[in-house]
Amino acid sequence: MRRNPDYGAEWRSSVPRRVPHVTLKDGTQLLRLRRRFPRAERWGLYAFADPSIAARQAPVFWHATTLKQVVRVRAAPPARRENVTPLTLSSFTVGRTAAIGVDDAPLVLMKGPGVHIPLEIHDVAVLTNPFVPVFEIDGFADLNTQTELLKRLHRFAEQAPSAGSRPAFAIDERLHHALIALDESLRGKTYRQIAITIFGEKKVAKEWQGPSQFLKDRTRRLVAKGTELMKGGYRDLLF
After folding, report:
1. N or C: which end of the chain has fewer CB within 10 A?
2. Taking a C-beta distance cutoff of 8 angstroms, is the pair 120, 107 a contact?
3. Which three-class secondary structure state does DSSP give residue 170?
């Protein structure tokens, strides 16, 4: 999305360009909004993120309506559940962003390597206080999806913090290559030059003129995939 020129133009004309956020003591990045930003919402965001900041450093707050699946949580006071160990947001040893929209319902996005788990929590106080989670499931049709999300969320609470986690795209080589192909295409590079960047000059020299045209076709598909991601396909990567 940050590579999309239309997004860049909308960000430059937005007021304000940067909505202030804070970092809680546990490291959670928190954005609290007093009004909606409809233009940002069209891109799937609560507020615009600065596209000039590198993706790993830019705080991005995805809007609840963009996420295909959300874990719904009601926070019970620890004193009422004596046999259950209370949690805090820091119990989940992954990256965390939280957004509180005008409805005052916090949406917390847990970000592990290649996995995003959104939590819609019906209590603002849990952002800083211990709580016992009570999960909500909307009927049997929702059961399988929610069960898988809860398993992943449980792993977030069990795993030790990792200082060297791989970025999400490192887990999917095709997506990684698609972003490289997109960047090179936006710089005006030819398909052959793009292929050299991704696969190396030796492989391209050997296979580019081959009868199967496999490498050419693969490079074209990578550019097409990268363009698709930039123009809205990024939403398919979010839960």
Report:
1. C
2. yes
3. helix
Tokens of 173: 């080589």
pLDDT digit string, tens, across residues 167-203: 444 458 899 999 999 999 999 999 999 999 999 999 9
User: Which residue shows structure tokens 């989670």?
Assistant: 133
Q: What region, left, alpha or beta, does residue 50 occupy, with left being phi > 0 and alpha being psi -120 to 50 degrees? A: beta
Whether the upstream peptide bond of residue 16 has omega within 30° of 0, thus cis, is yes
Instruction: Say if CB 94 and CB 152 are below 8 A apart.
Output: no
Give the C-alpha separation, 128 to 93, whole Å.
15
Spans of all domains in the chain? 5-158, 172-237
Q: Tokens 């926070």 identify what position?
A: 75
Per-residue pLDDT tens digits for 108-162: 999 887 788 999 988 878 888 888 888 988 888 888 888 988 998 998 988 765 5
Cα separation of 143 and 118, whole Å? 16
Residue 184: per-residue pLDDT: 97
* Beta strands, E only, 69-212: 71-76, 95-100, 106-112, 115-121, 132-136
Average pLDDT over all residues of the chain: 87
SS3 assignment, position 118: strand
8 A C-beta contact, residue 22 and residue 90: no
Q: Whose CA is closest to 97, among 83, 112, 82, 75?
A: 112
* Strand ranges across the sheet with 22-23: 22-23, 29-32, 95-100, 106-112, 115-121, 71-76, 132-136
